[in-house]
Amino acid sequence: MTRKPRIALFFQTELGYWLEVLQGITQFSSLYGPWEFLLANFGDVSIDRLGPDMAIDGICFHEAVGQNLSEPIIASGIPAVNLDGEPRGTMPSVGPDDAAIGRAAAVHLLERRFHHFAFCGFDHRTFSERRRAGFTAALRENGRSCHVFHGDSSANTWGAFGNNPAQKQIGAWIQSLPKPVGIMACTDLRARHVVLSCAACSIHVPEDVAIVGVDNVSSICESTSPPISSIPLDGRRTGFEAASMLTKLMSAQALPTHLLHVPPASVAVRRSTDIFAIEDREVAAAARFVADHAHEPISVDTICEAVVISRRALEQRFRRIFNRGLYEEILRVRLARAKRLLAETDLSMSEVAQAIGLPSGQALSEFFRRMADATPSAYRKSTRPKAQP
Question: Which has the least CB within 10 A, 41, 85, 335, 382?
Answer without folding.
Answer: 382
